[in-house]
Amino acid sequence: MQADAVVMLDSGNMDIPSTWLRPRAEIIYCAPTQETGLDERGTSAWEKKKEMTLYLIDLEISRAQVAKPVDQLATEIGLLPEELESYGRNKAKVRLSLLDRLHSQPDGKYVLVAGITPTPLGEGKSTVTVGLVQALSAHLKLNSFACLRQPSQGPTFGVKGGAAGGGYAQVIPMEEFNLHLTGDIHAITAANNLVAAAIDARILHEATQSDKALFKRLVPSVNGVRKFSPIQISRLRRLGINKTDPESLTSQEISNFVRLDLDPKKITWQRVVDTNDRFLRKITIGQASTEKGQIRETGFDIAVASEIMAILALADSLEDMKNRLARMVVGTSHSGLPVTAEDLGVSGALAVLMKDAIKPTLMQTLEGTPVFVHAGPFANIAHGNSSVLADKLALKLVGRDGFVVTEAGFGADIGMEKFFNIKCRASGLRPNVVVLVATVRALKMHGGGPHVSAGSPLPREYIDENLSLVAGGCQSNLKKQIQIAQQFGVPVVVALNVFKTDTQAEIDLVCQIARECGAFDALPCNHWAQGGRGSVALAQAVKQAASKPSNFQFLYHSEMPIVEKIRTIAQRVYGADDIDLSLEAQTKIDYYNQQGYGSLPICMAKTHLSLSHMPDKKGAPTGFVLPIRDVRASVGAGFIYPLVGTMSTMPGLPTRPCFYDIDLDPATEEITGLF
Fold first, then answer.
1. pTM
2. Which helix (H) or strand (E) element contains residue 29?
3. Which of 260, 280, 431, 652 has the maximal Cβ count within 10 Å?
4. pLDDT per residue over 289-304, tens digit each?
5. pLDDT surpasses 80 at 373
6. Are 390 and 529 within one domain?
7. Where are the alpha helices (DSSP H) in 315-423?
8. Is 149 an active-site residue?
């Protein structure tokens, strides 16, 4: 009853009573055989049986591997000691000065891992990403780097769990990866909520003070001298006031300077917390008597939905991040003018809070391949990709013949489309290959299989062989996602993430149909059970595809009208007949055009569970009109985001969240229950 695995030799048809075994223990049946030779990999028949059958918990696998010290890893990949800021033994920040030192180094090959429309359980893009770089590094002997997003604690303690990969294809230590890491999300939370506090404090002070009193407090006299701060001079310039002496301003200029005149009903900035907390979706603030009647409704978003997270992911330097933070629009004045973080006087402080967060965090995979973990925007409510800076640093480090593999959130229609149209515009980088991840169970769902709920047992259709459902999913969703990638002119390699319930006939059928649908190649991957060795064929296909010329192109021109950009995505990516703009959405678009935001790219906020706006519509839906209920602008991040249907920016907890299984052993300080 203490065993992780029980090996039964020549046991015939004997059944082991479940009472003999501890939960999650595996039984391996092995019959004597005359086949004692080894295959071409040096693997015996018994070892093959073992590797197919024996599965350990992700956390146990992670803990069983001793990671190399991060300074050793840094030396191996060509970092100088002064370019590293260690956070303990296993992780370190990498300074951006590396880009200056390696500016003349040619970039490596750039690979994006995307996926078909997922089930609520996820389909293993992170696992494929890690397995692929392990195969490229340890088995093909090529310099390679993975670039992954930092997971939010919302899913980690909610339903989905962490995002370190799994099995023998994961980032280690997975506890550190999935929890606080180096504090970037906490820095974003602090910066975001500083803006929120500044907004409400400014409204209170403007409501309760005269122009003269405000001016005296905003530009205080120090030793008898009043002096504008640099950020206040910037505001004066935007107002058209070219003066630097506070005593020289007229009464009207003073009024214009001190009054942002924010309309409480048009404040778009919300507070954030990195927890799934549905009861913070709508709150009332300012109810204490000290706030003098400044009561208003607002709400919380999850931290990774903050515009500051998107800025972190898209900035290409500290200066660029600082400028983007200053441009963030937090609301509108009563006269209809946008009010920015710089108008509030807070943008310099935000840059200070974010100065360490902008540096990517270096970690490693189970097999010692380097990984940059940086930024973590969701793909359904933001652009869903790791940082531009992590990719740029990694591409320089691997060199001309190396590979950088990064991941886009959710399906190709969500994360990949935004990777191309938003991230690639910001970075100037161009991908060489798209790896499209599929699973048999997700394809069965898209082929007409029953509903799947996280935390509930899988219906038999997903466990037993069903070629009809698999074929239906391939001919609908897989085919559509391949076509979406091909619109950008990038070759597609399909990676079938193999589960132990998949049959060989199902695996062969998926690969056959994927090739028929236009994929450069399609291969089964067993990295979860075998590590990099299980993805060698995928790595070889990716290497071959990357050697072909890329004809990358954007889906739309930036100068196309906002409405037409939205319509282009709806029709060419989602398969909609048209879009239906609400009156509010059209009014917002007119306002953004008036303010000069019309050339920004589009970041659709849409369900990830369907190509359409209807989560229950699987496969490749047609004949629908996409409803655009609202349109908002993240001016600092640099995109317009239409809200499709009902989208929440604050998830909720299920009846039984993951945290029921998470615990700490006080004696050993070991964490249990993370996955």
1. 0.89
2. strand 26-30
3. 431
4. 999 999 999 999 999 9
5. yes
6. yes
7. 318-327, 341-344, 347-354, 388-398, 417-418
8. yes
